[in-house]
Prior knowledge:
Layout: E1 4-7, E2 14-17, E3 26-28, E4 35-40, E5 46-50, H1 62-83, H2 85-121, H3 209-212, E6 216-227, H4 228-239, E7 244-245, H5 247-250, H6 253-256, E8 259-268, H7 269-278, E9 282-287, E10 290-295
Parallel strand pairs: 7-10
Antiparallel strand pairs: 1-2, 3-4, 4-5, 6-8, 9-10
Transmembrane segments: 79-106
Keywords: Membrane, Transmembrane, Transmembrane helix
Amino acid sequence: MDITTFQCPHCQAVLRMRYRQVEGTTFPCPDCQQQLRITLSPQGELTVSVIAPEPEPAGPSPLKIKTHTAWKQLQKGGLYLLASPVLMAWLVAGTGAFILLLLIIFDERHSVEIAVDLERETETVPAHIDTDNSDSPLLPADQAPVADAVPDLPVKENQNFPEPAAPVQPAEVPAEHQVLVADKPENLPPLIASKPKPAAPPAAPQTDVTLALQIPILEFRQAEEIPLKTMMIQFEEMLDTEFDLADNVKNDPRLLETPIALSSKNTTLSHLLEQILSEVALTFTVKSNKIYIERVAAP
Length: 299
């Protein structure tokens, strides 16, 4: 058996080949798994060399990758703006407002710089005093030139003045044509207007008691006993009037506290009042549109 011995150039392990190998054969090292190749040396001997890994294709640089990513993001943003007109309008308005604000700020700074430059360039020039009239004498402030006084002429010697006229005396007015004016009195109390009295309310029309007594009643029911006084108050409200009680009725509290209970159908107020008063030996009559209640006269 033909055995060829080699040494791995990578891990220095001893390699043995059982068969004769030809140039260009490749195989992995059993120890380091490095790819090896049998080559022919210039002396004509077979040797083992390490197969260099093929260089991987160089990818794009990080700067190029970032630039490409940013460009993709800008394209997506542009497509989103084109798809949303409202957002596009807000973006344009905000950009315009920002540019206008910058113009205002720079314009104000330019105006301030111009004003400062003008203040620096201005110079104060002293006023020149006119010396042309320096020869003329100057008078003090408290001594102003006074014109020559004109001498006063005596009134008697001056013939140009007219004689003074005599004072005019008021003409006397007859007594019948004189107008007397009274002096205004002092410390008079102020006049206070009296408050108008409210108008009296119109008198309510009186109820015709005779007609009211004829009002039909379909049913009247007072199952529980109540005092006669309370029953009479109910009838006063229904007839819209006040009963006039006789003295022997008004002054008898036991009579007014007599319990009364009554029920009736298809009747009138007059008949009901008669039934109630008959329970306590009373009767009523109509006098001057009022109901007068008194005791029943003894037979």
